[in-house]
Design goal:
disordered N terminus
C-alpha cells in the first residue's frame, strides 16, 4: 500500500476566504500534484536529516559537538516542515466535497510535524553537556518524544475522505 508522507499545516485565512467566496479551487489532480510536489522534497530532506542525526550520534564526538550538530539538524527539519506547510497552503482548497477540511487536515499535519521538530530542538538545546551519559539519555528521550509527536502528525493519502483525491494521489506522477 502506497502511503504519502506525514503532512501538516495551519488553516490559513486565505484558504477559508477563498472557499467562502465560492471560487472553485484547483481540480483534484492539480491539487494532488501541488501537494506531492511540496511533500516530495520535504520527505527527502527529512530522510537526509534523520540519516545525518543517526550518524552524528554514532560518531566519536563530544557531547557538545553532538549537541551542536543535532540542533542544526533539528532546525533544518523544522524549517523544511514549515516550507512544505507553506507550499501545501499555497495549493489552496481542492475542488471536491469537503475540500476545505481536507486541506486543513494536510496543513494541520505539517504544522504538527514542524512543531514536533521544534520541541525536540528546544529539548536538546536545554540539555547540559558536562555529563555525557545524562546528555545522551536526554537526547534519547527527546528523540523518543519526537518520534511519537511526528507519528501523530501523519496523514495517509489513501484515506483523505474524497474518492476523487484518492484517485488523483494514485495517478499523479509526483505522488509516486
Amino acid at each position: 500500500m502506497r502511503r504519502l508522507l506525514a503532512v501538516t499545516t495551519l488553516l490559513v485565512a486565505v484558504a477559508a476566504g477563498t472557499a467562502a467566496c465560492g471560487d472553485d479551487g484547483p481540480k483534484p489532480q492539480t491539487w494532488a500534484r501541488s501537494v506531492c510536489s511540496a511533500l516530495g522534497p520535504w520527505r527527502n530532506e527529512i530522510n537526509k536529516l534523520n540519516t545525518q542525526a543517526q550518524q552524528q550520534i554514532t560518531r566519536g564526538t563530544t557531547a557538545a559537538q553532538t549537541k551542536d550538530h543535532l540542533l542544526e539538524l533539528l532546525g533544518g527539519a523544522e524549517r523544511a516542515s514549515e516550507d512544505a506547510r507553506v507550499k501545501v497552503t499555497a495549493a489552496g482548497t481542492p475542488d471536491v466535497r469537503g475540500g476545505a477540511e481536507i486541506a486543513r487536515r494536510f496543513q494541520a499535519s505539517l504544522t504538527k510535524a514542524r512543531d514536533a521538530y521544534r520541541t525536540a530542538r528546544q529539548s536538546v538545546d536545554a540539555l547540559p553537556t558536562a555529563d555525557a551519559t545524562r546528555f545522551y539519555d536526554g537526547v534519547v528521550a527527546a528523540f523518543g518524544t519526537l518520534k511519537s509527536d511526528y507519528a501523530a502528525s501523519g496523514l495517509d493519502t489513501s484515506d483523505v475522505g474524497s474518492t476523487e483525491l484518492r484517485q488523483a494521489f494514485r495517478e499523479v506522477p509526483e505522488c509516486r
